[in-house]
Write a structure and sequence with these properties.
heterodimer; A: 123 residues; mainly alpha; B: 94 residues; MrpF/PhaF-like (chain B); membrane (chain B)
């Protein structure tokens, strides 16, 4: 039994460490802030959740009961990390940070320009 | 076996934190720095999970929750400051 739990812990921890490294590579190499937010919010969330699941299984076999603090931590990270990524990329767009110069389509700018023209024609 | 794997994962996570610090220093806009600091806090959560496996103690697990909450509040406050210029609004009916 201990061997199976060890294998599970090792698997989850290695997956989590891999996704942490992927987060760092994405934050360094991606071109603009929106793609960097994409890398940071998704893969960092998955990596830390895998590592915390490994910790949960470790303490489940070590102490023999379900450690509710880790479950709360997993749940909280799952809820809040994508919300944080959304908020910061929205704030960057409203503050006027430019997209990557090779990006093709910007529908939000088109929508804002359309609404501005509609306001102008009304008055 | 488990200790070796946890040490390797700890080294990998710390190296990725160093990579994220590069983005905090270099990042062209403020939002880049904020998103890098947010993922730095999330990496710190996984460091604490790995260290509590290495030390075989469960007394550090409150720190996980605390760091998650603090990273989220910091990100929300910074994004509101970038967007509106103030964090807690004085006049709501604007």
């Amino acid at each position: 039994m201990t061997d199976i739990s060890d294998i599970l812990i090792i698997l989850f921890i290695l997956i989590g460490a891999f996704f942490s490294v992927v987060t760092a590579i994405g934050l360094i190499r991606l071109p603009d802030i929106y793609s960097r937010t994409h890398a940071a919010s998704k893969s960092a969330t998955l990596g830390v959740m895998c590592i915390l699941i490994g910790t949960l299984i470790f303490f489940l076999t070590e102490e023999g009961f379900f450690n509710s603090r880790i479950v709360l931590g997993i749940f909280f990270v799952l809820i809040t990390a994508p919300v944080g990524g959304h908020l910061i990329s929205r704030a960057a767009y409203n503050a006027g940070v430019k997209l990557w110069d090779k990006s093709i389509q910007d529908d939000l700018a088109k929508k804002e320009q359309f609404e501005k023209e509609k306001e102008g024609s009304r008055y | 076996m488990l200790d070796i794997v946890v040490s390797i994962a700890l080294i990998a996570v710390v190296l990725s934190m160093i990579g994220i610090v590069y983005r905090v220093i270099k990042g062209p806009s403020t939002a880049d720095r904020v998103i890098a600091l947010d993922s730095l806090g999330i990496s710190l959560i996984s460091v604490i999970g790995l260290v509590s496996i290495l030390l075989r103690t469960s007394v550090f697990l409150e720190v996980i929750l605390l760091l998650g909450i603090l990273a989220f509040i910091g990100t929300v406050a910074f994004s509101k400051f970038i967007e509106k210029g103030e964090i807690i609004q004085r006049d709501r009916h604007k």
